[in-house]
Amino acid sequence: MIEWADQGILLAIEPHGEGHAVAQVLTEAHGRHAGLVHGGAGSRRAHELQPGAALSLNWRARLADHLGAYAYELETPHAAFWLEDRRRLAGIASACAVATVLPEREPMPGVYHGLTALLAALESEAWPAAYVVWELGVLRALGYGLALDRCVKTGATQGLAYVSPRTGAAVTAEGAGDLAPRLLPLPGFLAGGGEWDDSAIAAGLKLTAHFLKRDAFGAIHRDLPPARWRLADCFGTESPLSAESNAEDSV
After folding, report:
1. What is the pTM assigned to this prediction?
2. Residue 216 to residues 92, 100, 102, 219: CA-CA distances in angstroms?
3. Is the distance from CB of 35 to CB of 27 less than 8 angstroms?
4. Which of 36, 51, 106, 190 has the fewest CB atoms lying closer than 10 Å?
């Protein structure tokens, strides 16, 4: 028998068999990991097993490649704190859905700790900016990090205004020139300063959605999860992405 204990964030849960469920959990030391929860589909546990819930876990299986089974204790029911807040609930659902793109059973402690920090940041009015930064971290962890620290054309570190949808490289308005309408706007809070109002968050969500859709989810032949589009809708971001966002450019 193989057994381990870990901390995790519940990403998704699906009914399995007679009253049971399969839980997808992002764990600290074991990555995105599935396991059977006995009785997990029953009404008694339904209020506990909500996406975003922080769990203390024990996993057991006869062989390492088996599904195995989880025993758990609920640590923090994050979604339960925000039942009256549509945007925060959408943020939790979206983050959990996006995290399902991570490779199974591959430890990614940085993404796990980032998600834990994001759930804690829901207490702050700045949580939408933290959400966008977390998605950038997911892209980086998967090998699709964006180059947002300097202009790919001029080398400038100030005045960054756009991102190439082809290369993920930042560029200033001067460096963009006539290509500006074909580039993705870079919100100020990702360029070292600026506001994180709804329009800035919408721009940030559009930016990360482009690369998540094309590179991260595209690599496994999946579209962005519906929960991610719903979060974008909360901030007025069109979905699916416009043709301009997917346009090729020479930056």
Report:
1. 0.93
2. 19, 11, 9, 5
3. no
4. 106
Do the domain assignments include residue 159? yes
Tokens of 211: 């690369």
Is the pLDDT at 245 greater than 50? The verdict is no
- SS3 letters for the chain? CEEEEEEEEEEEEEEECCCEEEEEEEECCCEEEEEEECCCCCHHHHCCCCCCCEEEEEEEECCCCCCCEEEEEEEECHHHHHCCCHHHHHHHHHHHHHHCCCCECCCCHHHHHHHHHHHHHCCCCCHHHHHHHHHHHHHHHCCCCCECCCCCCCCCCCCEEEECCCCCEEEEHHHHHHHHHHCEECCHHHCCCCCCCHHHHHHHHHHHHHHHHHHHHHHHCCCCCHHHHHHHHHCCCCCCCCCHHHCCCCC
Instruction: Answer yes or no: are the C-beta atoms of 175 and 152 closer than 8 Å.
Output: yes
Cis peptide bond upstream of 240, omega within 30: yes
Question: How far from 135 is each of 77, 94, 164, 178, CA to CA, in Å?
Answer: 22, 10, 17, 29
Domain range for 34: 2-78
What pLDDT, in 10s, does the model give residues 120-137?
A: 999 999 999 999 999 999
Q: Is residue 89 part of a domain?
A: no
Residue type, 213: K
